[in-house]
Prior knowledge:
Layout: H1 2-26, H2 28-62, H3 68-85, H4 89-98, H5 101-111
Amino acid sequence: MWLFLLLFVCAPLVELYVLIQVGSVIGALPTIALSVLTAAIGGMLVRVQGLGVIMRVRDSLDRGEAPALDLIDGAVLLLCGFALLLPGFVTDVVGFLLLVPPLRHALIRRYIKVMPVVPVGGAGAPEQPRIIDGEYRRED
Length: 140
């Protein structure tokens, strides 16, 4: 509940305060232009990195691997794009920070625990052939 209060009440108030302070220093029109410019540049950067994520997901699927971390990377990029499209400089800073791949990957690794792949027979068990018992009849 506190997260929603912080997200929907405090964040817009902080954005408004920063926009008013920047507008009082550089003027209203340059502040609006700067906000639109950061949204446009951020949108282009998110698009380029998103295409890279799509290519990595496709390569993982072609190799027969599950692209779980790449999909999480794409989801974080989606949130990053949303933050960059919101008017305001605080969300733009957060969005641009998440566009830096090492920071984004460190954030993902901090909150997502990657489980090691364990063979079906248990840890360290050698892989044995799979035997399927059955009967068949040949009809010509």
